[in-house]
Design goal:
Blueprint (H helix, E strand, L loop, with lengths): L2 E6 L3 H10 L5 E6 L3 H9 L5 E2 L3 H6 L3 E4 L3 H14 L7 E4 L5 H5 L10 E7 L20 E5 L3 H13 L6 E4 L2 H32 L2 H5 L2 H7 L6 H10 L1 H24 L2 H16 L13 E8 L2 H13 L4 E7 L6 E8 L2 H14 L3 E3 L2
Parallel strand pairs: 1-2, 1-4, 2-3, 4-5, 5-6, 7-8
Antiparallel strand pairs: 6-7, 9-11, 9-12, 10-11
Bound molecules: 1,4-dihydronicotinamide adenine dinucleotide and 3-(4-hydroxy-phenyl)pyruvic acid.
1,4-dihydronicotinamide adenine dinucleotide binds next to α1, α4, β6 and α10.
């Protein structure tokens, strides 16, 4: 029997989810997006099987309903769905939002009905947004957190978990509170810091415009996420406000401690500070795709000239290994640069690494 899926919000995450769920043999994915162009594009690109002209129409015949909209919008849609829509008995509603406490506070709107809401958050994505950025492989190897609320929800969560198996994500169940505390540290607060670093540069560059030209390499790596969708991050910041405020206190303590280290100027102490951070960072599970490690990158140390770039891309193309992005990080002041080649999966990156090691003499690293 055919499973009917409704995806509301067809941007990076909704579009990727629609593509991944099409891996099921008997599935029909209906999409809706508030933006008419996005909706038409999703249909045209084969991201959805059919389009609906309202969220309600998409949802009413569905077995699984995904809200892949900015989180404040998701709550508005949940209220509408529970009050006005006639959903199929046994339907499972879920979302992909980056925050969970606020959303789960509204899950009980579905209590006493024959439908259930299970919170969800695929911890994969990027600073890109929109339907054209959607990728079938986006969730592979990434954590996908589910936050069922009650007993009925636990059974529905198991069904949803099984259905989401085709995404090849690593599914895990956590409480909404736990979710928001952890994501504040690994995702939400870092976005505030990245945006602030960029704003600091903007101020500095008013007096010293040359600083802007020097903002290469490390600065760009550290602030990539400042290029994210501001509407989405506005909603996340509003919904995870309390956790973020706690993070400000802890960050200020951390900055005070670091300031002390710099002020004392003790070389051993300064080195220990950097060494501790490096050791912890290097031991992070980089192979798993997490919120801050959204793409699979190889750093290739090449002479900074166009010939070297086409050599690398040519070797990969010849071996049939697809890449998603290529950029040069001008991290050093001499004639050399680092070519960062991004792959869709860890598997492709490993094949690429072996192939380039065999065919070039360049130094190749995974950061
Ligand atoms: N971007 C990322 O890396 C990740 C985002 N998320 C979460 O997933 C959700 C979607 O994020 P993205 O796909 O990145 O955003 P996006 O901006 O790429 O897509 C959102 C889509 O929702 C549509 N939309 C907005 N309001 C709507 C409404 N009322 N009805 C129907 N469509 C509506 C927009 O037109 C847009 O096409 C957000 O809740 C976000 O917090 C979760 C994991 C990663
Ligand atoms: O671009 C990045 O590294 C991200 O941080 C992507 C991301 C954004 C929001 C999420 O809830 C999860 C992952």
């Amino acid at each position: 029997m055919e499973t009917k899926v409704a995806i509301i919000g067809l941007g990076l995450i909704g579009g990727s989810m629609a593509l991944a769920l099409q891996r099921h043999e008997h599935v029909f994915v209906t999409g809706f997006d508030a933006d008419e162009r996005t909706l038409c594009e999703a249909l045209h690109l084969g991201i959805i099987h059919g389009k609906a002209d309202t969220a309600r129409r998409a949802a009413e015949s569905a077995d699984y309903i995904f809200f892949a909209t900015p989180v404040n919008e998701t709550i508005r849609l949940m209220k509408q769905a529970s009050e006005e829509w006639s959903l199929k008995p046994g339907a499972v509603l879920t979302d992909t939002g980056s925050t969970k406490t606020n959303i789960m506070e509204h899950a009980d709107l579905f209590e006493g009905t024959d439908t259930v809401f299970v919170g969800g958050h695929p911890m994969a994505g990027s600073h890109k947004s929109g339907v054209r950025a959607a990728r079938e492989h986006l969730f592979e190897n990434a954590y996908y957190l589910l936050t069922p609320a009650g007993r009925k929800d636990a059974a529905a969560a198991r069904r949803l978990e099984e259905f989401l198996g085709v995404t090849k994500a690593k599914l895990a169940v956590v409480s909404a509170a736990e979710h928001d505390a952890m994501t504040a540290v690994v995702s939400h607060f870092p976005h505030l810091v990245a945006a602030s670093l960029v704003r600091r540069l903007e101020d500095e560059a008013e007096d010293r415009p040359f600083a802007r030209e020097l903002a290469a390499g490390g600065f760009r790596d550290l602030t990539r996420i400042a290029s994210s969708n501001p509407d989405m991050w506005r909603d996340i910041t509003i919904q995870n406000r309390d956790e973020l405020l706690d993070q400000f206190d802890l960050w200020q303590q951390e900055m005070e401690a670091v300031r002390g280290i710099v002020e004392r100027g003790n070389p051993d102490e300064i080195r220990r500070f950097y060494d501790g951070a490096r050791a912890y960072r290097d031991a992070l599970p980089l192979k798993a795709q997490g919120a801050l490690f959204a793409s699979f990158d190889l750093n290739v140390d090449i002479p900074d000239n166009p010939g070297a770039i086409s050599e690398i891309t040519g070797i990969l193309a010849e071996a049939g290994i697809s890449i998603t992005n290529v950029r040069i990080v001008e991290s050093r002041a001499d004639v050399f640069g680092i070519l960062v080649v991004s792959f869709q999966t860890a598997d492709d990156r490993e094949k690429g690494r072996l192939c380039l090691m065999e065919k070039t003499g360049y130094e190749i690293n995974i950061t």
